[in-house]
Amino acid sequence: MGIRVGFISLGCPKNRVDSEMMLARLNNAGFEIIDEIDYADIIIINTCAFIEDAKKEAIENILEMAQLKESGLVRKIIVTGCLAERYQEEILKEMPEVDGVIGLGGNGDIVELCKRVLEGETVSVKPEKTAMPLEGERLLTTPGFWAYLKVADGCSNNCTYCSIPQIRGPFRSRPMEGIIKEAKELAEKGVRELMLIAQDTTRYGEDIYGKKMLPELLRELVKIDELKWIRILYCYPDRITDELLETMASNEKILHYIDLPLQHAHKEVLRRMNRRGDPESLLALIEKIRSYMPDAVIRTTFITGFPGEGEEEFKTLRDFIEKAKFDRLGCFAYSAEEGTFAATFDNQVDEQTKAERAEQIMLSQFKIFEEKQKALIGTVQEVVTEGYDAYTDSYYGRTWRDAPEIDSAIKFISPYEHDEGEIVKVEVTAVEGYDLIGEIFED
């Protein structure tokens, strides 16, 4: 029996890809990757530290593993990822049960570092962030029919509320040939849906090619025969170009789905966030997207309670959302992150007000969302099958309108057996909460 490694991956899809690359290195080195945590020789916790809740989740997982170690069910604990990059010394000082803390630049050396920990050494490494490998084999942790494809890492937008540039460094694009090669390899393994991700996907290529190259990358990816759906996440509003929209509109493999985190709509709040825009310009952008793709699904996120957000600013945000009628929307109460400019701003909003405003936004959005879902009743949708629920005797999956892990589902009945990943036609018959209900459509 080889060295048994359990892996806990927290946070965003970008972090998940990092985990998959480390898992592949360990697997290729002969380590045994296990699903169950108990009796692991090493537990690796790849952490997030983007906001306070993410830090709390990471710490809770570390403490839970420390209890297993104390009871003899786990031998060694290694912490990697954003929390390790940001709070390396604090982790070692306050959590003596941890045997290794590895900054992002050490991901490529995970095999050697695990061996050192097993030999009894307490490992603490923090190479340059830019040493983190962006290319390499991955051991997929998603279902075999869909996968994330990271086109860049880091961020250079420097929004005042965000700690990502401090943690992960400046924006770094991958060479296009490496991305295309990986996409082909994923397609050959059975992946039919690719999710393109980065901190700012629309910035892809600026740093190494001197111009935005996302449209050209998309035109190359659609040539991969086995791919069925290509979805783009994390698009910065200022970088939505006519070329990008034209490319999306003219290629049927590229889903008419845009993830467009706007964060706010009031001009002065956006300025304090180090972002641009106002209600008029943002509504014009949304109208432009829908002019190219009338069926476009636009997903966004907002922050309530940013420093200086008074009732007037919040009303501007509420009114904007009512006018824009987003298809998908998430809203989060502002979290003052250590080391960010916004954490030092005057006029901080109290926690209760921030939370209440976020709740108001989500309640308003649900009405808009419900109307859009009900409008689909009677239509026939392409659905990727994700599984079968014996309790309800029905299948469940996603339409092209829904990204995995963040959006809604559709439950449907069928007299036939369907495999995971199979794309079928489903007639929508009802709406249940956030989800659609349907039945298999027979021509």
Give the distance, in angstroms, between the N- and C-terminal Cα atoms: 53 Å
Shape: globular
CATH topology of the largest domain: pyruvate-formate lyase- activating enzyme
Number of helices: 14
Number of strands: 19
Characterise this structure.
The chain is an alpha/beta fold and 443 residues long. Helices cover 35% and strands 24% of the residues. It is built from 14 helices and 19 strands. The strands form four sheets. Strands 2-1-3-4-5-6 form a six-stranded parallel β-sheet, sandwiched between helices. Strands 7-10-11-12-13-14 form a six-stranded parallel β-sheet. Strand 5 (100-102), helix 5 (110-118) and strand 6 (123-125) form a beta-alpha-beta unit. Helix 9 (214-221) runs parallel beside helix 10 (242-250) and helix 13 (311-324) runs parallel beside helix 14 (351-374). The model has no long low-confidence stretch (mean pLDDT 95).
In short:
With 443 residues, the chain is of the alpha/beta class.
Features:
14 helices; alpha/beta; 443 residues; OB fold (Dihydrolipoamide Acetyltransferase, E2P); pyruvate-formate lyase- activating enzyme; Rossmann fold; 19 strands; globular; six-stranded parallel beta sheet
